[in-house]
Design goal:
Elements lengths: L6 H4 L2 E5 L2 H11 L2 E5 L3 E6 L2 E7 L13 E5 L3 H11 L2 E8 L4 E7 L5 E7 L5
Parallel strand pairs: 1-4, 5-8
Antiparallel strand pairs: 2-3, 3-4, 6-7, 7-8
Length: 125
């Protein structure tokens, strides 16, 4: 069967943000690239995969608990850990080797959405 769309467009995460400029700057600092900026809607990419930011200024306060996260696989997770520490990002889960074969950590974006960076542990598939 033919694919309807390219796999990088098949499943896209869209998150609502309070301040589009602040959120765009946060994600760009992490290494995401801007594909499109329509003012209140920004399309970001990471190695061809998309992340949409949709400004919703009427959102309530940032939640205390995180409902979901987006995971980004990187070759050197420790480098991203250092970057996020320099940024002063709120840590949700500190960097550690996990039983599921990844070394990872999670931080919160400015609106409380979690971003997890991970690297496969040596000898793990």
């Amino acid at each position: 069967m033919d694919r309807y769309v390219d796999p990088t467009e098949q499943l896209v995460i869209e998150i609502f943000v309070r301040d589009i400029k602040r959120s765009t700057a946060f994600y760009r600092r992490l290494g995401f690239e801007v594909l499109r900026d329509d003012g209140d809607f920004v399309e970001l990419t990471w190695e061809g995969h998309r992340l949409f930011l949709d400004e919703r200024g009427d959102m309530g306060p940032v939640p205390d608990t995180v409902q979901a996260n987006v995971r980004v696989m990187v070759p050197d997770v420790d480098r991203y850990w250092e970057l996020t520490q320099e940024m002063g990002a709120r840590v949700l889960a500190p960097i550690a080797d996990k039983s599921y074969g990844l070394r990872d950590f999670a931080i919160a974006d400015p609106d409380g959405f979690a971003v997890r960076f991970a690297t496969r542990l040596e000898g793990q598939g």
